[in-house]
Specification:
Layout: H1 2-14, E1 30-35, E2 38-42, H2 51-61, E3 69-74, H3 88-91, E4 94-101, E5 106-111
Parallel strand pairs: 2-3
Antiparallel strand pairs: 1-2, 3-4, 4-5
């Protein structure tokens, strides 16, 4: 009887939900390189127009709210081999420009005009 209780307890521990400490899923974006404070990130084409998706990456990469953080996002629809500096095929696919300046106390998120979103201040 005591053995059954121990086995049940072990089975419960093994089947705990993910919230109980399993590692989070691997990121589907790629930090391709850095140039000083500027970071270049490649995201999947399927997520290119998802603001919440970028917000999660920004929260991860720019975790210190008081520090400057400059990000440029791109897609790689052609699947070229990644290198840094970024290949021309990737540079031709900008999606978002994010910058937070600690000095000026400003934050800016801009979509690329290439995406055709209804944002008035695209780049």
């Amino acid at each position: 009887m005591k053995l059954n209780r121990i086995l049940c307890a072990l089975a419960a521990i093994v089947t705990l939900p993910a919230a109980a400490g399993e590692a989070p899923p691997a990121a589907d974006w790629h930090l391709a390189g850095r140039l000083g404070l500027l970071q270049f990130i490649v995201v999947p084409e399927a997520s290119a127009r998802d603001r919440a998706y970028y917000d999660r990456i920004i929260e991860t990469v720019c975790s210190d709210d008081t520090a400057s953080c400059f990000l440029r996002f791109f897609t790689n629809a052609s699947g070229v081999a990644m290198s840094f500096p970024l290949p021309d095929a990737v540079l031709a696919e900008p999606t978002v420009m994010f910058q937070r300046s600690a000095k000026h106390r400003t934050e800016q998120f801009q979509w690329s005009c290439r995406l055709g979103l209804s944002e008035s201040a695209c780049f």
